Amino acid sequence: MTQPQTVLLTGAAGGVGSFLRASLPGYGYDLRLSDIAPVPGAPEALTVDLRDAAAVREAVRGVDAVVHLGGLSLEDSFERILAANIEGLHHLYEAVRAENVRRVVFASSNHTVGFVPRPPDPEKAVLPVDTPLRPDTYYGLSKCFGESLASLYADKYGVETVSIRIGSCFATPLNTRMLETWLSPADAARLVHAALTAPDVRHTVVYGISANTRGWWDLAPARALGYRPQDDSESYAAQVLAEHGELVPGSPEHTYLGGPFTTVEPPR
Ligand code: NAI
Ligand code: 15L
């Protein structure tokens, strides 16, 4: 597909938004920034609450593509997740359809499959992208909804989406689990650029991590879009392990893909 020119970046005030608003212009994009919160250093950013369908439509008008990062990024009450991540996402896709925007890059999450057991030997395992969904939170459930909504809008209305199941996108890996799940900011930009420019994606789901030696999620679907990760969390391994140690058998981080999101609670 021809590279989109003007791209709406929702969630621009957040952690990933801050990385991408610095890096994506270097790939030739003109960014329109939006968030419910002020975007530091960007007074021109639009203040848009995803719960407000009219404001979302206004924000989308005239762009060529959307990189959708906005919404709640951690577990919360079902009501708040429903409003921001589920109804908010519906507002976004309705706006995209009405304004004839062709491509969305959706920030999905590894927490769509958080209750997948972590394999005994992760370095020898490869988790396929079509593994059955096993959300670990209402937050993860909202990302499952997002992927399904994207599929519906691709089949019914021709709106194309790449859903990126992001691992852990931070400047550096913050703990031992992130040696497996890290997505470096520079690789995040590489992956989003590939997702914006790959031809005929319809609805494609990919995992979003760097070329981590300890990674165990299949990167072939992302590579098929043109993603060529350059970073590996292994360069931080000695430092991270000295600080945090190995994963403890029986802990959520050792047991399930979704790590700290996968606490199991007794029935009420
Ligand atoms: P973040 O929480 O730092 O940023 C999210 C942004 O969305 C915030 O700036 C917030 O103000 C905005 N927002 C919240 N509710 C809103 C609403 N009702 N209307 C408009 N904007 C609203 O999250 P982060 O880490 O930057 O993540 C970005 C996206 O990537 C999120 O969708 C998150 O679920 C997803 N993701 C991030 C991962 C990571 O490692 N950082 C891992 C997996 C997924
Ligand atoms: C996510 O989906 C969260 O938004 C982020 O804050 C991290 O916790 C990440 O997953 C992770 O699994 O490390």
Task: Please give a handful of descriptors for the protein shown.
single chain, 9 helices, seven-stranded parallel sheet, globular, alpha/beta, binds D-galactaro-1,5-lactone, Rossmann fold, binds 1,4-dihydronicotinamide adenine dinucleotide, 268 residues, 9 strands
Write a structural description.
This protein is α/β, with parallel strands linked by helices and 268 residues long. It contains nine helices and nine strands. The longest helix is centred in the N-terminal third of the chain and has 21 residues, at 78-98. The protein is globular, with a radius of gyration of 18 Å. α1 crosses α6 and α2 (53-60) crosses α3. It has one domain (6-262): Rossmann fold (3-Layer(aba) Sandwich). α5 links the parallel β7 (168-169) and β8 (182-183). It has helices at residues 15-23, 53-60, 78-98, 138-157, 178-181, 185-197, 220-224, 237-244, 252-255, and strands spanning 6-10, 30-35, 46-47, 65-68, 103-109, 160-166, 168-169, 182-183, 203-208. The protein has a seven-stranded parallel beta sheet, with helices on both faces. A two-stranded parallel sheet has the order 7-8. It is 34% helix and 15% strand. The structure holds 1,4-dihydronicotinamide adenine dinucleotide and D-galactaro-1,5-lactone. 1,4-dihydronicotinamide adenine dinucleotide binds next to α1, α3, β5 and β7.
